[in-house]
C-alpha cells in the first residue's frame, strides 16, 4: 500500500511539473530566454516603440523616424572583442551585398549601443571606422536616456549582464525590422548572407 501511495504521488508530481513546464516554456517550445524571444517575434511581430537615439554624428533621432525602410539592427558595445566584432564584419559585407538598396534608402543598417555611458558619438564613430565603414547606409547610435535604453532592450528582448571585468555578456543576433516598424525576424551571427534574399526575394529570380 505504501509503495502504491508513493507511486501515485510521483505520478501527480510529474503531471503537475509537466503542466508548469509547459506553461513556462510556451508549450515546451522555449527552453531558453533566447528561444522564447524568437518565438515571440514569430508569433507577435513586436512593434518598435518611440525611442530617442543619438547617432555617431551627434544627431538626435527617434526610432520611429526610421519607418518606411527595412532595418537590420544589431546591439553592441564598442569595447566588445567577441560577438560585436563578428556582427560588425557582417555589416561590412551587407554594405556590399545591399549597396543599391542602402544608397536608395530602402534599407538601413543600425548598430545600437547598450553601453551609452561609455559609447559617446566619438566612440561610435571609431567603432564604424574600425570596420572600414563606407559611410553608406550604416548608422551607429546610443539611447538618449536610461528610459530609452530600457524601452529598446525590452522591445527587442535584449539581455545584458555585466561580466564583472568591464565587459558584458549579451544575446547577439541580426534583428530585422520591416518598413511598418515590426520586428519580424532574428538571425544568428553568421547568417547575414541570407538577408538580401529575405528582404528582396524577387531579386533572386
Kindly describe this structure.
The protein has helices spanning 2-24, 33-44, 83-97, 99-104, 121-130, 146-156, 195-199; strands at 52-55, 60-62, 70-76, 107-113, 138-143, 160-162, 168-170, 174-177, 183-187. A seven-stranded mixed β-sheet has the order 2-1-5-4-3-8-9. Strands 6-7 form a two-stranded antiparallel sheet. The chain has seven helices and nine strands; from the N terminus they run H-H-E-E-E-H-H-E-H-E-H-E-E-E-E-H. It has two domains: 2-31; 48-204, 3-Layer(aba) Sandwich (Glutaredoxin). The chain starts with a helix and ends in a 6-residue tail after the last helix.
Spell out the blueprint of helices and strands:
Layout: H1 2-24, H2 33-44, E1 52-55, E2 60-62, E3 70-76, H3 83-97, H4 99-104, E4 107-113, H5 121-130, E5 138-143, H6 146-156, E6 160-162, E7 168-170, E8 174-177, E9 183-187, H7 195-199
Parallel strand pairs: 3-4, 4-5
Antiparallel strand pairs: 1-2, 1-5, 3-8, 6-7, 8-9
Which structural class do you get from the secondary structure elements? alpha+beta
Which strand-content bin applies to the residues? 15-25%
The fourth-level CATH homologous superfamily of the largest domain is Glutaredoxin
Count up the helices. 7
N-C termini distance: 71 Å
Mean pLDDT: 83
CATH topology (level 3) name of the largest domain: Glutaredoxin
Listing every helix as H and every strand as E from the N terminus to the C terminus, the arrangement reads HHEEEHHEHEHEEEEH
